[in-house]
Recover the amino acids of this structure.
């Protein structure tokens, strides 16, 4: 498939994202605040990394790209982590080590390596935004299901009438993957749209 | 990799590192103090929450930390006390401690605020993972501690979450004990009724489970100021006023009564009126039919079933002797409480020599309650709901001297501990009867 602006934007479609970010979605979607925090961290780190990578990709030799891009992502994640600990300490505590692990996230790296490295700042920014927003939305959807049904709470506030009906397993790691699988199945069903777009893209390319 | 590639890669990484290092260095001027303040605030937040407004915990506030006990001057601090803080303006103390019950997935974390007069001014649970939340069963349980001194007068336990609330209460008592032990606050004085009520578990095991009082309240009347009726029919306990003094009157399932004073001395003979008043407040329950049924399950030819008076105070609610052929046996019907305060029925048959010849247990682990059988016990149950398997065979031939923890079942500790306690009570009743015969 020929790479066009549209196809770059489609890199952010959830069906692909979910597989790459499964660990993060599972680990950080137990609570809505946590999910929004992680979503924001991914979005900002991806956006900033993409801008820098797209700006300097021509002067970085091919053999130095992997360590250089990882270093750039790590740098931005470190700065974001400092800001979150200062301004959103509760969310930073909830995210814990997963925030630092974002440095080696395949979701962010893939965006830098596959998009920003091959295109200008404009496309890189758009792609990062689309991917980041999709990722955040998926996190929020998973978190809503897990927090409401698993913890019988929302935004940390207990929901009184659900207390006797909560499915605690959903709040744990197992439940995280179950919810992820369900969301993924729904998205795969819906993203007939994605495949249609891909096919159209291909036709246009030809 | 060529040396040139290596050097270029290293140089690029160094440049990136320097750029981000400088950015982090600059950003740290803004975020560093904020992060430090956040961390300090998070540590002190539970302390401030349990102290009066205006409380502050400065640099020397921490007077004990379990991380470094040798640095503290406090002595005799229990292991479950994590830290003790002294409020800077003399408003009192804040203590962080843990409590654990047999239903705790992980220890509860508790913060207690104690004012300068030794009264609890605030208390909160920082973490709680017991299977039943006592705050759900009694929303006012935590607030019942507010204003209480170390005597914790009128602070009880929560029905349906007895183990958890007892562990919580014990932790609070232990934490306050640290301050009393180290002369930082004065000890509260317990009322006579409180002292007598605390004696019940050690004097009448039938009113307890796991060492905790398990009874329903009986309304006060006449000189009776407090009354407790065993959940398993094993008797009653009453706090009875007689003039200025208060007494504890215990009644067993046979209607025997003993009276104790606040020192724990048996003063029954000198307080016959107290005993009579206590007995008048009880209702007799007949367990003869239930016992006969359990005896006949194993001894179909049992004859001359003769009831015997119980003089012990435990889980045995009925005793009798019976004959099969030429042999005489003694049957002790016990009703100890098990998991979830459910009653088990146990019939222990002992021969003339004091050795068990049969042990029958019904309703072990909730057969009648539609709840899952406990692990370990389930396999021992037969279709009739009685246990005749390997587990009960362990009791055959056991005497009071050889009863040991070998009869406990891993994974069904509460139920098998209750069976062991009932067996022990049966031996005590047997000795009492045999002593009376001699």
């Amino acid at each position: 498939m020929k790479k066009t602006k549209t196809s770059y934007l489609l890199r952010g479609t959830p069906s692909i994202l979910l597989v790459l970010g499964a660990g993060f979605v599972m680990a950080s979607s137990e609570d809505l605040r946590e999910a929004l925090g992680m979503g924001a961290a991914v979005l900002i780190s991806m956006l900033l990394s993409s801008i820098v990578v797209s700006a300097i990709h021509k002067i970085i030799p091919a053999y130095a790209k992997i360590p250089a891009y990882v270093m750039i992502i790590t740098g931005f994640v470190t700065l974001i982590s400092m800001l979150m600990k200062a301004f959103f300490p509760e969310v930073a505590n909830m995210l814990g080590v997963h925030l630092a692990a974002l440095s080696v996230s395949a979701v962010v790296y893939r965006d830098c390596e596959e998009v920003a490295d091959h295109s200008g700042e404009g496309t890189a920014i758009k792609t990062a935004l689309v991917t980041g927003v999709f990722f955040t939305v998926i996190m929020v959807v998973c978190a809503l299901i897990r927090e409401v049904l698993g913890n019988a709470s929302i935004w940390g506030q207990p929901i009184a009438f659900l207390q006797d009906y909560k499915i605690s397993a959903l709040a744990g790691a197992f439940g995280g993957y179950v919810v992820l699988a369900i969301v993924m199945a729904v998205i795969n069903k819906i993203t007939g749209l994605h495949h249609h777009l891909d096919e159209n893209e291909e036709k246009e390319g030809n | 990799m060529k040396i040139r590639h290596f050097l270029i890669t290293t140089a690029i990484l160094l440049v990136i590192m320097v750029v981000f290092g400088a950015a982090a260095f600059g950003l740290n001027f803004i975020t560093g103090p904020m992060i430090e303040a956040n961390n300090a605030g998070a540590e002190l937040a539970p302390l401030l929450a349990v102290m009066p407004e205006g409380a502050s915990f400065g640099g020397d506030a921490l007077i004990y930390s379990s991380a470094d006990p040798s640095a503290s001057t406090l002595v005799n601090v229990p292991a479950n006390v994590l830290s003790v803080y002294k409020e800077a303006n003399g408003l009192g103390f804040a203590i962080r401690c843990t409590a654990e019950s047999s239903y705790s997935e992980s220890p509860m974390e508790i913060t207690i605020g104690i004012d300068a007069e030794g009264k609890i001014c605030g208390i909160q649970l920082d973490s709680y993972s017991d299977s039943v939340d006592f705050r759900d069963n009694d929303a006012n349980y935590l607030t019942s501690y507010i204003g209480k001194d170390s005597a914790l007068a009128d602070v009880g336990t929560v029905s349906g979450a007895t183990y958890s609330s007892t562990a919580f209460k014990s932790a609070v008592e232990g934490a306050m004990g640290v301050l009393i032990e180290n002369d930082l606050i004065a000890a509260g004085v317990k009322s006579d009724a409180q002292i007598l009520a605390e004696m019940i578990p050690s004097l009448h095991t039938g009113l307890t489970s796991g060492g905790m009082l398990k009874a329903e309240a009986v309304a006060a009347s006449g000189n009776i100021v407090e009354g407790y009726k065993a959940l398993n029919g094993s008797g009653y306990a009453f706090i009875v006023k007689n003039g200025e003094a208060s007494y504890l009157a215990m009644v067993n399932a046979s209607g025997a009564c003993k009276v104790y004073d606040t020192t724990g001395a048996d003063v029954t003979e000198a307080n016959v009126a107290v005993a009579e008043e206590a007995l008048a407040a009880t209702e007799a329950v007949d367990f003869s039919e239930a016992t006969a049924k359990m005896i006949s399950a194993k001894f179909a030819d049992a004859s001359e079933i003769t009831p015997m008076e119980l003089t012990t105070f435990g889980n045995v609610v009925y005793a009798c002797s019976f004959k099969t052929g030429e042999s005489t046996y003694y049957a002790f019907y016990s009703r100890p409480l098990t998991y979830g305060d459910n009653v088990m029925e146990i019939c222990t048959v002992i021969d003339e020599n004091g050795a068990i010849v049969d042990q029958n247990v019904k309703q072990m682990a909730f057969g009648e309650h539609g709840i899952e059988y406990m692990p370990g016990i389930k396999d021992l149950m037969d279709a009739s709901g009685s246990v005749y398997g390997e587990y009960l065979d362990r009791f055959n031939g056991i005497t009071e001297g050889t009863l040991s923890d070998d009869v406990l079942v891993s994974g069904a500790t509460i139920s098998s501990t209750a069976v062991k306690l009932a067996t022990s009570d049966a031996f005590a009743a047997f000795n009492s009867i045999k002593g009376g015969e001699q």
The two ends of chain A are 9 Å apart (CA to CA).
